[in-house]
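Hello Y.,

Per our agreement to keep a running log of every chain we model this quarter, I'm adding this entry. I've kept the format consistent with earlier entries: sequence first, then predicted structure.
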Amino acid sequence: MADYFGWDIGGVHLKAARLSAASGRASLATRILGFEIWRDPAALTSRLRSLRDARSGPHAVTMTAELSDVFPTRAEGVRTILGACAEVLPGPPRVLNLRGRLVTLDEALERPLEAAAANWMASAKLVALARREALLIDIGSTTTDIVPVRDGEPRPAGRTDTERLMAGELVYTGVLRTPPASLADTVPLAGGWCRVCPEHFTVMGDVYRVLGAITEEEYTVPTPDGRGRSRNESMARLARLVGADPATIGPTAVETMAHFLQERQVDQVARAIVQVRALWPGDPPSEAIVAGAGSFLADCAARRAGLTPIRLDALFPRLGGDDWSRAAPSAALAVLLAAETGDYRFTS
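Predicted structure for the entry above:
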């Protein structure tokens, strides 16, 4: 039995994956821990230690948390995060860069911006093991990654966050933390349209709790008001978007707002998919590989853009385990570490 470990250090979640492989069998186990790094960056070390598995094996790391404004610069953020990883993870761990290479810790520390915001590359490299031509759509709590895979390799138009935002390959929208007011200036109400309050009253996690698309357990970020994650509590927060309570406008009105906001978010992602596909040389693939906590949203957006969605984990029938595609970058790193040994094959 051999074990391989992948880590994705985000600004609001830490994700760890362990791939256990033996005798042609392999399975993934993933863990997700809510951790807002800007509140206590010094606690990163202890949080990583709480997730670290007792088993031995190689570790690889990717990140997006360096963008948090708790760090004066992104380069300083990368070095701080890697310092915590070096203290906790044995090896030392290797680090994924924007070219898709797993480099040494020292190399990453020397060129920190090449390791910044590279987690999408891990997922795209995993897709490339199973598909020579594909479009990956990974929607998380905060952002959406849309990554072309061509000729068996990730072929993004951009690599930095800024380049990817310009190309449509990064959309700052997700299923939990996105403010609804960023999606619409007005929402339908009482047969007309009501302007919204751009306060931190509610987030898209509330929209999807109201619609039943996520469970309380899947609402893994703090709520804006510090209260619970029940459907009724989410309805109360969402009603604040129009300066109201469910008791004053009625639950049906809140549900109508939620459906409208979901449609706006689906449309936002679908338009980005169209933008990315427009740059494809030749005929783009007709399928989309969907992943992330918001895979249900990726599914809807792919269909709206005229594509057939396929779950990322469905590409790897030989790979057992939990719902690992929710933590795709960390899971991908564990698989990539195992795959580079040449001892394991994960596709049919």
